[in-house]
Design goal:
Length: about 200
């Protein structure tokens, strides 16, 4: 008799605990596994003269008005590793003559969103410069602003075969190159050009 009573008591206690746990609202916990990556991303943008602000959730907003000749872009390209789950919201303007082989290299698993601003290269030392070079699995979106490359032998945007989905509804002036690599894959798979100038 005592054993049965103890079992009932324990079962009642467990049932009470279970009910209480279901009534407690789950607390939202944000764990940033990419804290160092985001800090590195911001440091790289600031080193090249841009202002970068992280919203502590998933977006780094880039602003500023930069002349390439007056910044590190003249000698060093902007090497952006965009971690998975992070969006770089580009609203900045950068203009200048060509010098490096390219200005922006994007890689990682995150998203580069150009929602405004200007990325413009005029002919300078190097007439076959690329403005934006995209590889890895970056999702690339132009939803505003302008990308312009006046170099006759260069590209406004160049994608490698492992670039992720691409949406262009802003303005791109200059050639776009889709490199299909050596695996025989379709270089246009996952590329979506929408209304806008290309």
């Amino acid at each position: 008799m005592i054993k049965t009573s103890k079992k009932r008591h324990i079962l009642a206690l467990l049932l009470t605990v279970a009910v209480m746990l279901t009534l407690i609202q789950p607390m939202a916990v944000t764990v940033s596994a990419t804290g160092t990556d985001v800090e590195d991303l911001i440091a790289e943008l600031e080193y090249h003269g841009f202002t970068a602000v992280y919203d502590d959730v998933d977006t780094v907003t880039v602003t500023g008005n930069v002349s390439a000749e007056d910044t590190a872009l003249w000698d060093y390209y902007l090497n952006l590793y965009i971690p998975d789950g992070i969006t770089v919201d580009w609203q900045a303007s950068v203009t200048g003559e060509s010098s490096n082989n390219y200005w922006l290299e994007l890689y990682g698993d995150g998203t580069f969103l150009m929602s405004g601003g200007l990325i413009e290269m005029t002919v300078g030392e190097n007439n076959d410069s690329r403005l934006i070079f995209i590889n890895n699995y970056v999702t690339f979106v132009i939803d505003g602003g302008t990308v312009r490359n006046e170099c006759s032998h260069g590209y406004a945007i160049e994608f490698l075969d492992d670039s992720e989905y691409t949406y262009i509804s802003g303005t791109v002036e200059g050639d776009i190159n889709f490199d299909d690599g050596d695996d025989g894959s379709d270089p246009f798979e996952g590329i979506f050009l929408t209304a806008g100038e290309h």
